[in-house]
Amino acid sequence: MNWSYLRFHELGVDNLYDALALRCAVFILEQGAFLDTDGVDRQSGHLLGRDEAGVLQAYLRIVDPGVKYEEASIGRVITSADRRGTGLGKALMAEGMVRCAAAWPGRAVRISAQSRLERFYEGFGFRRAQADHIEDGIPHCEMLWLPPTD
What we know:
By secondary structure, the chain is an alpha+beta fold. It has helices spanning 12-30, 88-103, 118-122, and strands at residues 2-7, 44-50, 56-63, 72-79, 109-114, 127-128, 133-135, 138-145.
C-alpha cells in the first residue's frame, strides 16, 4: 500500500474526489444517509492508501486538536469493501497513529468509534471513555488513547 498524508489544501482535486467517493460508498450507500462533509475536513489531515494500480483502497482523517475534541481525533476510517478482512484496516489505523504521534507527540487521541468495533480499537490501546450513544443512526462510543507515561 502506498500511503500519502496531506492537509486539506494539499489534496488536489483528484485525491479529494477519490476520498469523497470512497467515503460516500461506505458512509452513505452502505450505512445510510448522513452529512459526511461536516465542515471539519479543512482542519484535518487526510491519510490515503492506494494500491499498486493507484486505486484508493483505504482512508482516514485526523482532526486537529481543539476542533472536535480537546485531543486530536481519528475518524472516517474506511477500507474499500473488497479489501475488508485483509488486514488493511489495521495497517491504516497503525499508520494513522504514527501520524498523530508525529504531529502531536505525547498527546492523547480521542475517537468516536462504532460500538461494534470497540475491540478493534482496543487493539491499538484505545479505552472506552463514554457510554454508547447513537450517531448517524449507528451505536457509537467515545474512546481515548493515552500516551505511555515514563
